[in-house]
Each structure stands twice: as structure tokens, then as C-alpha cells.
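Support request, please re-run this one:
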Amino acid sequence: EVVESGGGLVQAGGSLRLSCAASGRTFSNSALGWFRQAPGKEREFIGASSLSGSSTSNVDSIKGRFIISRDNAKNAVVLQMNSLTPEDTAVYYCARSRSPYYIGGDTSEYDYWGQGTQVTVYS
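Re-run finished. Output below.
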């Protein structure tokens, strides 16, 4: 099971920090990824963190504004989002990869999904 937290309402230019918490067993054996889905749009890959701590990101989507990191003390993967714009408004999802080292964007490679957390950016 994975659970997202940290969403909310933020003004354009601001920052938000999302957290994806997993059970100890899940976290210690899994890569975790972040996706988002805006109304009327397909789910979009943001990035992921592997078991070894390496990470990847969808450069085109986030343009270097988002940082993914692994917090081993909290069994969580953190998505730090900076310089937010209204185009970042979406439901943000965390998901567990089937492989501990897969950090790509193919949704079929992820088997457990969180319920999502809403991020709304206003101008």
C-alpha cells in the first residue's frame, strides 16, 4: 500500500512537498513513482526513485522544477515541487513499480497506486 499526502492550494510561483509513504516491506523492496492527471488529460509520468536511490524525471514535463528523493527514515519518496504554475494543477499519484529498479513511465509497470492528492495552483 502507498499513501500520498501534502497536496493543497498554492499560489503560482510557490512550492509544495508531496510525500508517498509505504509500508516498511513495500518501501524496502520497491521503486516508487509519481504521476499526475489533470482533468480531461491522460495520466502523466513525473518521475520515480529506485530501490538504490537513483531517480529519473520527465524533463519535458517538469523542466527541472521538481525533485524526487527517497527518505529512508520515513519509508517515503518525496516530490518537492517548486515554481508551480496553474498548469501543474492535477491529482498527483504515487505508485509502486513491479520491479525495484524500474523507474520509467510505463503505467503497466506499476501495480499498486495511491488514492491521489489534489494540487491546485492559482494565479
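The chain has two helices and eleven strands. The first helix runs from residue 24 to 28.
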